[in-house]
Design brief:
6 helices, 48% helix, mainly alpha
Length: 83
């Protein structure tokens, strides 16, 4: 779902929720290309789909994040796990 939001394959109201850290601030950091993790004040809020999806997307390898097609994006993490 996150991949589809980033590639604008879903309605705009879902795509607008995604923002990179480089859009938030102009500092050059190692993780400026990661997605901005929403701030959650409670543990209950951290159980929602959007929080977990962004957190897991940020933990993917850079090669997986650079995939252009959905099929190759789905195959890449599986290949990483098998290594």
């Amino acid at each position: 779902m996150i991949f589809e939001c980033l590639k604008d394959l879903v309605p705009t109201y879902l795509s607008e929720k995604m923002s990179k850290r480089s859009d938030i601030h102009t500092y050059t950091t190692r993780s400026n290309n990661d997605l901005n993790l929403p701030r959650c004040r409670t543990v209950t809020a951290q159980r929602f789909f959007f929080y977990h999806a962004v957190k897991h997307y940020n933990s993917l390898s850079p090669e997986t994040k650079l995939c252009k097609a959905l099929a190759s994006f789905k195959r890449s993490p599986k290949a990483e796990l098998c290594k």
